Amino acid sequence: MIVERDVVVVGGGPAGLTAAARLASAGLTVTILDEQPELGGQYYRRPAPEVARRWGDHRREGGELIAEARAAGVECRPGHLVWGLADDGRTLLAEDTAGSPVRLRGRAIVLATGAYERALPFPGWQLPGVTTPGFAQHLAASDHTPIGERVVLAGSGPFLLPVACSLLALGVKVAGIAEAGTPYRLGRRALGALRHPARLRELAGYAARLARARVPIWQGTVVLRADGRDRVSAVTLAAAARPGLAVRTVEVDALCVGYGFRPQTDLARMLGCEVVADAATGDAIPVTDAAGRSSRPDVYVVGEAAGIGGAHLAKARGLAAAHAILTRETGHPTPPAEARSLARLGHFAALTDALYPSPALLLDTLLPALPDSTLACRCESVTVGELRAEATGDVNAAKARTRAGMGPCQGRVCGFAVAGLVGGDTVFPSRIPVRPVRIATLLQLATEGETA
């Protein structure tokens, strides 16, 4: 049986929830799906019940937004993984919490699939205790559990600051933040933040908290290597301009490294939406209008899936898509104030991007300094040297010969670096299933006469 709705929303984060709540409140039938056990996405991730009872909700507005969507009549389906598309090109294939197949079709589809963290390899990144900042934030928010007792955060982007503050709140010793760029030096670009006082206050709050805890921020600094036997015990840092030359070594029991985020566009590409490669990031960015409408008129791409911009912009994009759908249904135009808000938040996202080094620049700077013995693909234990030997520009051929990017993560962790080493497109092709799916689900789907 195919579930038919006016709108199907994939992704239960800020953008998806905002769109779903607005559409349902206008009387449309809306189903929202998310692969996590609870709605909220990464930004509004729900704490475990025992954590919430003891420590409260770290972002109460997330719970309020979920409650608003439910009250509006949104059919909420957490624990539902959307993994593919049926042969008709319209029906979404999913599996529920029990592994049973679910098929859904909407007159409009809103893709709010979010983003995943951008990783770059370095010697020792496979050691226990080496994680991404997002994972550390997840442990802190959901379980009130520190990633370690003495931690260094490294990489690039504004996300490192709130993660550091979350760890400080748990009593963690944040030994330092290694930022690859120099975004916190006064300059012409930084002065543009004065046009966004709310975001500036947020940044100032993080900076004040870090200053009180005497957390150093080493700008223009990257990870050279991580060392340890059973787990990471030290991190050696280098100047970003000379990534092979050590400048300091810091003792740690956890190291969190991430270079921002990459949009999750697998489903958008699978649905036939046009994408373009962003020259600064190497990411596939869906081609949309201001309301998120893609090249396929019934598909809207919103939130971080439409381009990285933060939770506030994600919500504005979700609302814009909802109003565009309602305009199509009722003829009522989008309120002008909301269009202005979307433009203002988009300006701030562009300003933020300009303050930090582009991922493409980081790729060109950091990859040549890696030793051949460095693991590039941790799932399949493929080294940097093996991929350099495949530097023909053909990513698919390199994958076939080395199995790089063909493990459980499907290239989400290593794909950016693998493509950079091979010299090809930094966006891996989108293929079914976009996420690992149970074989039992596929067998049951086949018995029902459906093919992917």
List the helices and strands and how they pair.
Layout lengths: L1 E9 L3 H12 L4 E5 L14 H7 L4 H12 L3 E4 L2 E5 L6 E4 L5 E11 L3 E3 L12 E2 L1 H11 L6 E6 L4 H10 L3 E7 L8 H4 L5 H16 L4 E3 L1 E8 L3 E8 L2 E10 L2 E5 L2 E3 L2 H5 L4 E3 L6 E3 L12 E3 L9 H20 L5 H20 L3 H8 L8 E3 L4 E2 H5 L6 H8 L12 H8 L16 H9 L5
Parallel strand pairs: 1-2, 1-6, 2-3, 6-19, 8-15, 9-10, 9-15, 10-11
Antiparallel strand pairs: 4-5, 5-6, 7-16, 12-13, 13-14, 17-18, 20-21
Helix pairs in contact: 1-3, 1-9, 4-5, 5-7, 9-10
How would you briefly describe this protein structure?
The chain is of the alpha/beta class and 452 residues long. Helix content is 34%, strand content 24%. The strands form 6 sheets. Strands 1, 2, 3, 4, 5, 6 and 19 form a 7-stranded mixed sheet that branches.
